[in-house]
Amino acid sequence: MLFRQLFDEATWTYSYLLAESEGGKALLIDPVREKVPQYQQLVSELELQLVYAIDTHVHADHITALGKLRELYQCETTFGDQAPVQCASRRVKDGEIIALGHLQLKAIYTPGHTDDSYCFLLTSEKPQMLFTGDTLLIRGTGRTDFQQGDARQQYDSLFNKLLKLPADTLVYPGHDYKGMTVSTIGEEKRFNPRLQVNSAEEYCRIMDNLNLPNPKLMDVAVPANLGCGL
Ligand code: FE
Question: What tens digit of pLDDT does each residue of 119-168 get?
């Protein structure tokens, strides 16, 4: 398999390029509009055919590249079923598989950070690779205080879905602010401070008292992203 973890240093966003192999069909998860030239270069150098561009949710902190990538490659702009966007050419439901040759990427509905948040599990690799968007971060979790976020739903998504995956499942988050690139479900269970709680109530108490400022780009990014960043 071909796998690249790409970083947007302006917004601390990770994007992920997956393909069967060089010269094969590819997909991008959470691509950033400012990075389109870099994606174009990689796609052409590795002779890839970009067929899917996927957003884990409507982002508030960066502008998505989905629209630009569709213009360039006619790829499917892919969102979860609940995303409040007009520009999706493919929507996935909980449990649905996106196939790319022998690669199988399973959509998992994980509301909480937003009501349209999905994680994507690459089940065809061992260990499995989980792309968590902003649901589960390395030693953190995504905020739940805007875009129909809900701490109780996030608790449910984390504890009843993601943390039930095998301990060796690799965790690739949508952001990292400290230079971490990958973790595992087992490691997060043990060391993620937000997950050391005994009840949903305790989790909600933590999340409801974070008092974070709004993301710098929020007023620009959310409306732009509802139209795939175009
Ligand atoms: Fe987000």
Answer: 999 999 999 999 999 999 999 999 999 999 999 999 999 999 999 999 99
CATH number at residue 97: 3.60.15.10
CA of 150 to the centre of ligand 1 (A): 13
Q: How far is CA 33 from the centre of its chain?
A: 15
**Total tally of structural domains belonging to the chain:** 1
Phi, psi (rounded to 5 degrees) for 28? -120, 135
Residue numbers of the domain that contains 28 = 2-213
pLDDT tens for each residue of 188-216: 999 999 999 999 999 999 999 999 999 88
Q: Would you state the structure tokens that stand for residue 64, as one six-digit string?
A: 């998505």
CA of 30 to the centre of ligand 1 (A): 10
- Ligand 1 centroid distance, CA of 215 (Å): 10
Asked if residue 228 belongs to a domain, the reply is no
pLDDT, tens only, 107-125: 999 999 999 999 999 999 9
Tell how far the Cα of 163 is from the centroid of ligand 1, in angstroms. 20
